[in-house]
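Supplementary notes (optional reading)

For those who missed the lab, this is the record we used. Protein: Cytochrome P450. Length: 586 residues.
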Amino acid sequence: MVHENQLEVVNRINKYDKSKVRCGTYQRPPKTTNLRFVAEQINDHLRRQETYSDVAESEQRKCRTTDIRVDGVDDGHIAKKTNIESTERINGGKKAPEPGGAWPIIGHLHLFGAHELLHQKLGTMADKLGPVFMIRLGMRRAVVVSNYEVAKECFTTNDRILATRPRMTASKLMGYNYAAVGFSPYGPYWREARKIATLELLSNHRLELLEHIRISEIDSWIKELKELCMKRSGKGPVLVELDEWFNALTLNIMVRYIAGKRYFGGAEAFEDDESQRWKKVSRELSYLFGILMVSDAFPILEGIDVQGYERAMKKINKEMDFFLSQWLEEHRRRKREHSEKANKVDDQGEQDFIDVMLNTIKDAKIFDHDADTMIKGTCMALVLAGSDTTMITLSWAVSLLLNNRRVLKKAKEELKNQIGKDGHVEKGDIENLPYLHAIVKETLRLYPAAPLLLPHEAMEDCTVAGFHVPAGTSLFTNIWKLHRDPNIWPNPLEFKPERFLTTHSHVNFRGQHFELIPFGSGRRMCPGISFAINVLHLTLARLLHEFELETPDDAPVDMNEGPGVTLMKANPLRVLVSPRMTSTKC
């Protein structure tokens, strides 16, 4: 039953701009209906209720706040602030410092504006509060870590305790009720789903068996880009949105791995209706996963679509489910047609990930999820994580190279010396390109695809850097800030790949060197690291060796970051491209 307070708050918010709180599949809710506004409405409404003092007292006990005092009133809203001494002892441990300005009920939510990037705001807070601090987002607590030594403690000493994920609205509505492996809570289901995904798709052995797909897709991608350029050979370099091309490439590779399909192909790669539909659906999913829902901050509003996003999530999930159900039916039909030869790859065709999953889990119910739900949830998570993050890193790498022509020239010289002026980069050449490896590492340092990783949650009380972290507290690891620590990285904002060939040559990104953890670490580390690195190295090497890249009017590339759970560029990467080698042989 909906509580009377819920309806009152929603009515107040909808009265603010009821006509705009709508969201179709690709029509996002207006920025005016943001969490800060909602938080203020909730705070103002509860202040007027007779039960306000009881609710506030209850919340103070939950969040263990102390010394509440009224400092003043601003625009009709209560401006209560909380002074927290980090030396206060709780259950034998210190309480982590908090930013000033917390309000009862909403906590620090009002400090995060609609136009501020969360990882940057948290980085600024870390400058004032130190590498570990606590924030309150409505009724949720979160500890923020911005230091490699503390991150190491989280992912080693406390790895098991911090191995689960918070149950968020997006994961429920778009992740098949937490069946999507990256968002699943820690437990038997997650272990089984991750084991299947790792062994049957992302292990080094499996990637070697499937490497011809990766190589053929990169070959086709290079050829299509050259053909586009050759069509306009008399008009000089061709202006392309390179991030769109990266998106097509990475989606094709991952979808072929998983479903044996490709959605983009030919020089007119972005004109096909189904391809366009797939691209829009995958992008909207990625965007919506980055939204902090009101119901996540205020469980009292669960089921009340205050922002309009829940309807959008349900609709986009229905769109994605159409594709995934279609894939499943195609595979089942093919399996029936080849029933007597189901295990003979030569007769049935190459087995992709869905084939393997159908043969592995059949019709069994896997820990509260049926077989279809597990397959669709796992496939959705792998496609989005594998394609989106790789595309993002390629876009940032090219952007950095175009803004640092010395590094670009040096990379091209390495390729020329190792491959030859007219040679083609092969898989076996990659290990002989140390400067290219350093470029990828430096890109991941400055612009990690997931700047806060995915949030973890404490399953029981623990201690982090001497501070008490209660069970149920979320963990944000701000690797964007951690990777820019001047105590570890001299001149941290400078793009300098040479550091990985000299002072930091021992550092890699496979989860054991905590000063560089773009893929995370511990139990919940991204299992797709080998896939991502293989695609990054070969794609970047082929692109730099076979094309000349310039910016329009020789202007610097805009390096503004976009909002979301992944670190997209704020603006498209438009590059003038011309083939250095005229042959279309790949």
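If you only remember one thing from this example: The two ends are 63 Å apart (CA to CA).
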